[in-house]
């Protein structure tokens, strides 16, 4: 059976049996400097049980998790067993068919992605939703928005919206003129340190060798990681507990270093609140669970790109185009 059929079949059964919880959400958009942010308001998600023991606190993950939901996983959520990974349904989803790609053996969420992780993520992204656009993300480290310390990438299908490309950050990527695969870029309009590289689809699509695809994706990923550290050294003094967000679509990979997990926001009436932001925030997709959070996002000044800069790391001077890292 194809991966797409397995995803659908397992999802339908898990939803029916109550092993998976789907939370209804309202969607709205707010544009900032050409990026049409998708704001998802899911009030019922606030009732999701919080597992404080498994919250990432330090890179050493000194606090051992009491319960690891991925080892062993609930069998009702297992879509497919692979050699080194397991494809699971996300138990708490606001996007149907949201998948987790978890390591079969325990690895830390603070470790970088390996060639085999990237190869599996790419393959799942291409096949889990019958080729419809999708996004892989990885919340790495204690300030990345991750809540589970067991290594897991996530995969979601992207909605086809009329008001702009998906994910919303792609509109900034689309503005890179004469972009070349493998070249690493920074985008003037993003007020936080980041690196982004276009992927060579002709190469990946024509490759019939699993290792060749893995090696290519790993070369892109580690090139980006090096470039991100170069930027950090130029603009700040990176600490030992590095956190970052990773985003991969069929067109590009992007890395954003993180300084904080929570953004401090105030609504129009001055009421303060904290908002947890993960990789999806940097893709242009923000999640809120309370009406005051929604109101604060709708009115946040000076705009949502600056909100991201609050939890990322601001440039200390102008970003510049970077050299080919291949
Ligand atoms: P993490 O990397 O640790 O954390 P996260 O995605 O930020 O989700 P978090 O757990 O903090 O949930 P939140 O309320 O913010 O990923 C852990 C993953 O494991 C999560 O996907 C979690 O749901 C899942 N999980 C936990 N226990 C499980 C179990 N027993 N079996 C299987 N899976 C389990 O966000 C809720 C969800 O909405 C998350 O999936 C999040 O990724 C997603 N989300 C956040 N922003 C979104 C946006 N803008 N649009 C769509 N979805 C969004």
UniProtKB/TrEMBL annotation:
- Active-site residues per Swiss-Prot or TrEMBL entry: 152 (nucleophile)
Highest taxon in the source lineage = Eukaryota
Classification via PANTHER family = AP-4-A PHOSPHORYLASE II, PUTATIVE (AFU_ORTHOLOGUE AFUA_5G14690)-RELATED
Query: Pfam families attached here?
Result: Ap4A_phos_N, ATP_transf
Name of the protein described by the UniProt record: HIT-like domain-containing protein
Molecular function terms, GO-annotated: ATP binding; ATP:ADP adenylyltransferase activity
SUPFAM superfamilies per the UniProt record, alphabetical:
HIT-like
Residue span, ATP adenylyltransferase C-terminal domain: 189-313
| Stretches assigned to the Ap4A phosphorylase 1/2 N-terminal domain | 3-173
Query: What GO terms describe the biological role, i.e. biological process, of this protein?
Result: nucleotide metabolic process
Origin organism is Syncephalastrum racemosum
InterPro entries from the entry?
Answer: Ap4A_phos1/2 (IPR009163), Ap4A_phos1/2-like (IPR043171), Ap4A_phos1/2_N (IPR045759), ATP_adenylylTrfase_C (IPR019200), HIT-like_sf (IPR036265)
